[in-house]
Specification:
4 helices; about 140 residues; Heat Shock Protein 90
């Protein structure tokens, strides 16, 4: 698990790891996260390689992250991923105050995910915690 401060600039990596994609997206979302007093943790395994189109996956994740961060206040946002065969499951969990309109605003990210053969689902818990899951095939030519 790696934790980055907002002032740290991630190194540009040439490897197609999901971890590096998430690092880049966290850096892009940092101003919004700071504004909403959110803290983001990248818990994606550093060696999780991407076979799928990283540009499209990054686009879906970017929309997903920005939506989640925009709707969270004073929150810790944990991003993790696991591989199940040829399927990758990315989870964005928020532990803090979540706006009730988050499910409605995930529509655009969900549409993008469906166009790539992926799916986005969300569970909103009673204690104002949310878990958003993005599942996609990690095979060449997918996404």
């Amino acid at each position: 698990m790696e934790i980055y401060q907002v002032t740290e600039i991630p190194a540009l990596s040439k490897d197609p790891t999901l971890h590096s994609i998430v690092n880049d997206l966290i850096y892009e979302a940092a101003p919004l996260a700071v504004h909403n007093r959110n803290y983001i943790v990248n818990n994606v395994p550093a060696d999780l390689m991407m076979e799928a189109n990283g540009t499209i996956i990054s686009s879906v994740l970017s929309k997903l992250f920005h939506t989640a961060i925009r709707h969270a206040q004073n929150s810790v946002i944990l991003i993790s991923a696991k591989v199940y065969g040829i399927t990758v499951l990315v989870q964005v969990k928020s532990k803090g105050n979540i706006s009730p309109s988050l499910p409605e605003d995930l529509g655009h990210a969900s549409l993008k995910a469906r166009k790539t053969g992926g799916i986005i689902e969300m569970v909103l818990c009673e204690n104002e915690q949310a878990c958003i899951a993005y599942c996609f095939l990690n095979v060449a030519g997918a996404a």
